[in-house]
Design goal:
The chain is mainly α. Among the domains are: 207 residues, no CATH class; 107 residues. The chain has 20 helices and two strands. Strands 1-2 form a two-stranded antiparallel sheet. The protein is elongated and about 100 Å long.
Amino acid sequence: MPALAARKIAIVGHLVERSADRVLSSLSKALAETVDDSALGDVRKLVEAEVAERQFRNAVMEPLAPMFVGGAHDPRKLTFPLAAFALIWRGLRSVAGVELDEIRQMADADPPHPGVSARYDRLVETTASGLRARANPDFAAAAELCDQARPDGAKELLACMDIAAVVRRAAVKLPMWIAHPGSESRLPARLAYNDALAVSKGAGQYYFQMIAAQLDQRWMVLRIISAVMEKPSERYLVDSGLAGFTEDVLDEVDEALTLIRAFDPEAGPEAGYAAALLAELAVRQIVEIETNVALNRSRGWGRRVHRQRLGLASAVEARLREADVAVIAALPMHEIKQYGVRRTAPRLSSEPEVACVRRAETLLSFSAGLRSAVNYGGFSAARGALVEKLSAVLELYVDETVQQIRLDQTHESDETDCAEAFLEVAARFSDLVVGEKAGELVRRRAQVARYHESQIVFIAD
């Protein structure tokens, strides 16, 4: 098959250059098996070259790269337009292409040249000079995009570039600072912050924004702020312009509460687990604020956090009560008279209702997903009570059903099949309430009961 024409390759190249990293990565995987002499062979080479160039670009601009996302319109997060990143890199290529190729060879060496980081920093300085001058058309266009996205956007980007070397050194230590936020990390975190302030007195806000962008969980920057400022108060953070970090977390907790209250129990176990993960995240975020910010429960953030704790516990407990009701509905009982005594027994005259079982599994999945959050979330007692009650309910239900299979003298296959179906439901519930071993035990008991019933039928025949 003939290769694509040069004009078409140029069009594809333009599209590839403008694609987001994740899109480019997916495209690279899709074309991985494409042979060189096929119609898409040149496209694969083009994509692979662009992927390699992006990796190098992101290494050079590591302190800044995570800040180039979307349209950069979030007022609380310091971000810049993604399109500006491509223009900045193109501008740097045009003014320092030879140096870029030389440094790339240093970086690709095995092991990498020890002076690579310092050369990266000089490239960022070159980029900053180009943006300030705006003489290069690509740099000028990038600065214009930043200014369109937010007031003084280009000025803020330059402020970040000025402390990029400080952030690059701090980024190497971030995993340790996050994992060990105590005394061992406090001093080096403060020294790094002071290095940023030495570049510019107003660099504090930019420094924390850049550090937050380096983290997979942005809200964990509160640990770094707390280490630098010795667990600051709400007032201090507001006055220093850093209140947005805490307010972002508080807003995320409110959103999680709304979703937990609104999730549909008919949506299936995946929805239950997803809601539980939201509850766990909300607990972690609340604890993070309480640990790293000095709060007053009677006002401001302290009162809001207190209300969120109460609201989360209330929302979770309401779902746990629904789970209790749903399990009972999915395993129906009825009253029978045996040896002159009335008692309740499993109703096995029809198959389990799919909708009832699905609802119960969804809510039990929610309960199961809460295991790691209950101790800090304020709903440990409610979940413990539910587990204790349902464990007893399931154990009794399984005992009664197994006994009914064994003692059934009519050997009606339909009723036996229903009983086995309900035992499988009980096993799935046991997986979620007690654990997989409990569910497997129920399945083994069902097999034994079935074998016992089949032997009775064989002997009777």
